[in-house]
Amino acid sequence: MNRFSAPQCHSCPSRHLSLLQCCGPTAQDEISLHKSAQHYAIGQTIFLEGSNPAGLYCVHSGMIKISKIGGDGKEQIIRLAKGGDILGYRGLVTGTLHSASAIAIDDCIVCLIRKPDFFQQMNENKEFSNGLLQLLSKALGETEERMLHLAYKPVRERLAEALLLLLRTFRTEENPEALTFSILRDDLGALMGTTKETATRMLSEFKAEGMLSTHGSAITIRDPLKLVSIATQYD
């Protein structure tokens, strides 16, 4: 984890994807003046489940997993975050501890916005507070849907769904047609709600069927339409 000069909000390439687009130029300059930024390598923790929110986290670049540890000690990935996404807002709004952990699954840069700046925008900027409400609602809906799929979909369908989610997450405006991404097999299993061994075995089956190829941790999707067909089989 390395600290360096924080990127400026008004020149951030992901600014149009972020909640901070609701803030005017003056507010963005004020936020940029006080925020900090850190670089995280793969596997490093941005914040831990059960810790106190330090502020609002805004992903400048890279990929992050939001995960919880179940009663059996196994990790479950709730969602993935990329450039433009914000993290930690639920704990700030409710005044509670972080309900999940945020861990880098890719080299990433994350900005930390001070609590006073967050609450000032929430209290004084109607567009910002409305956008925050929409984010909370969307996150709740997506989490409920994922939990249902993990409970009722067979593992083959869950793998196809996880691969499509990773494909959408790793694609960027600079490379919108990218078909290759890297993910540790432990993380893929946690995203599917299964074990590393099961995820690896199912990947081998998909590879044998010509839907993908692998090289180390890298996965290249060869037949995304087939994956869509499998993922939506029980929808």
TrEMBL record:
Protein name as it appears in the record: Crp/Fnr family transcriptional regulator
Residues covered by the HTH crp-type domain: 153-225
Domain of life: Bacteria
Taxonomic source organism: Hymenobacter jeongseonensis
Keywords: DNA-binding, Transcription, Transcription regulation
Signal peptide limits: none
Pfam families per record: cNMP_binding, HTH_Crp_2
SMART domains (UniProt xref): cNMP (SM00100), HTH_CRP (SM00419)
